[in-house]
Design brief:
Elements: E1 2-8, H1 14-23, E2 26-30, H2 37-47, E3 53-57, H3 69-78, E4 84-89, H4 92-102, H5 114-131, E5 134-137, H6 143-154, E6 160-171, E7 182-185, H7 206-213, H8 216-238, E8 243-250, H9 256-268, E9 273-280, H10 285-288
Parallel strand pairs: 1-3, 1-4, 2-3, 4-5, 6-8, 6-9, 7-8
Length: 291
């Protein structure tokens, strides 16, 4: 039997993850009383085939019983029972926004502010995050992107180091992305904006791409950037970083930054050890403002 313990912060997407795990063949049990966990695993192990996949959801809803979990996990290891832990996380501001949008109460919320409840939950489940085999930060993931990550781990069986990279283009005149970890300025390249026939197009169009990439400095920049990232990414992983946002900016976020973000994404995607997505934050803003 293949056992997965699904846990994490309330509001980080565990319910969505359970539905996805069911779709790929897991038998899922959510919010099982911790006192019954070992008995459930023993029973499942005897009655299911060796290839059966079981996911058990355990989180802060267990209350004070959560204190018993560490001892039970140690007993499972002593009995030779193998398991993986998947921990779903998200930034505090994102969790608060999700609770406000759904109008649901946090499991620990009574008369306290939601931020206080989240802080208490983080402290209570930190031991699970420390032991987790997979940590996915869902702060900036769409549902389909979370599904892609789960399929990559549990269906395609790819090596996974719990890092998700966002390659983002942006325009400096609209501000540097607040969540950017690494910011690169490509305004040193010739600007397609000043070529009349290219002005209404974007870095997703072949004509703009050819214009930007016709300059040798664009290729030198990309080569040096990819080389640096290949050094940085394994070190970020070893330090336990879960999210990395690489922001590439030009003046309006429409031509040069889009082209180079596309190229960077193409060179980084498909590598084992991390997930990756591409986002063009400001690509339509000039059009919306009639520029």
């Amino acid at each position: 039997m293949k056992l997965l313990i699904l846990t994490g912060m309330s509001g980080a997407g565990k319910s969505t993850a359970f539905k996805m795990l069911e779709d790929i063949g897991y038998y899922c049990v959510d919010n099982l009383p911790i006192q019954l966990l070992k008995s459930f695993i023993d029973l499942s192990d005897r009655q299911t085939s060796q290839n059966q996949k079981v996911a058990v959801g355990i989180d802060i809803r267990s209350g004070k019983s959560l204190d018993l979990l560490q001892g039970i996990l140690e007993e499972l290891e002593q009995d030779g029972k193998k398991y993986d832990i998947l921990f779903l996380d998200a930034e505090d501001d994102v969790l608060v926004k999700r609770y406000k949008e759904t109008r649901r109460n946090h499991p620990l919320s009574q008369t306290e502010r939601i931020y206080t409840s989240i802080a208490k939950e983080r402290q209570a489940v930190q031991f699970l995050k420390d032991q987790a085999d997979y940590v996915i930060d869902t702060s900036h993931l769409l549902t389909r992107e979370l599904k892609g990550e789960l399929e990559r781990i549990f269906v395609e069986d790819q090596h996974y180091e719990s890092l998700f990279i966002t390659v983002m283009s942006f325009g400096f005149k609209y501000g540097i992305p607040a969540d950017a970890d690494l910011v690169f300025d490509v305004r040193f390249l010739p600007n397609p904006y000043y070529v009349e026939e290219l002005r209404p197009k974007t870095g997703n169009d072949k004509e703009v791409q050819e214009f930007v990439l016709a300059h040798s400095n664009a290729h030198i920049f990309l080569a040096k950037l990819v080389d640096m990232l290949r050094f940085l990414i394994p070190n970020y992983i070893s330090e336990g970083k879960n999210q990395l946002v690489i922001a590439v900016g030009c003046t309006g976020g429409k031509h040069r930054s889009v082209t180079l973000a596309n190229e960077l994404y193409a060179r980084l995607k498909g590598k084992e050890g991390y997930g990756i997505k591409l986002e063009h934050r400001d690509i339509t803003k000039d059009a919306l403002q009639g520029k």
